[in-house]
Amino acid sequence: MILGKGTNLLVKDKGFRGWVVCLTQGLKKVRQEGDVVEADSGLPLQRLVQFAIQRGLTGLEPFFGIPGTVGGGLAMNAGAWGVEIKDVLLSMTLMKGNGEVMERSRQRLKFSYRRLDLPASWVILKGRFQLRKGKKEEILEKVRSYSEMRKRTQPLDAPSAGSIFKNPKEGPAGKWIEEAGLKGFRMGQAMISERHANFIVNLGKATAEEVIHLMEMVEKKIHEEKGISLEREVRVVGE
């Protein structure tokens, strides 16, 4: 299993049987060529955003506050405030299962909502992003605005794996969960956040089993009451 920072990952209580390759241990370089920034897949997304801000480059501000890596962001086509990471991507360097390294342009990659369609054995090595020159003060103001919105709407003060479910075509997942009266509902030490219903927070010693049971209960209730099938954004692995 290829791992970034694991911020959108739930590992079952008995762990993962197999090799885990963590890209954050080595692939952390970032470099600039004019308005193009190239970043290794193990680089924290926050470092990439900060790198662009320091150089007066705009385009990455919506990703400020997303806690994963560049590779993780590309693998799940991370997005916020109506912008997806594919929107600023020029190309990606990949390694096939046989070790062959190649570069693919954005046009040759299959992105969809919170997803990049790649063979499971392929590894994302780095991404090249097309940014634009901007005024540093305006870029910083955008970042401050997005940061304030996150603080107001998301439970940043408690451990979580981020948004649990993808937003269905019927509307935001959090809206349906809240309408079902599930805000604050608990299973053991796992609780649906009272601030944002699409987050499950760990109150201290939650087990993966408690989180999974809570997810399953939400899926069942929303399907029964609203006729909506929620798809998980958090990846569950292990045994």
Structural overview:
By secondary structure, this protein is an alpha+beta fold. The protein is 25% helix and 28% strand. It has helices at 45-54, 70-75, 136-153, 173-179, 208-226, and strands spanning 2-3, 9-11, 21-22, 30-33, 36-40, 57-58, 79-80, 83-84, 89-95, 101-105, 110-112, 115-117, 123-130, 132-133, 160-163, 186-187, 190-192, 199-202, 235-237. The strands form seven sheets. Strands 4-5-13-9-10 form a five-stranded antiparallel beta sheet. Strands 15-18-17-16 form a four-stranded antiparallel beta sheet. It is globular, with a radius of gyration of 18 Å. The model has no long low-confidence stretch (mean pLDDT 94).
List keywords for this structure.
single chain, 239 residues, alpha+beta, Uridine Diphospho-n-acetylenolpyruvylglucosamine Reductase, domain 3, Uridine Diphospho-n-acetylenolpyruvylglucosamine Reductase, domain 1, five-stranded antiparallel beta sheet, four-stranded antiparallel beta sheet, 5 helices, 19 strands, globular
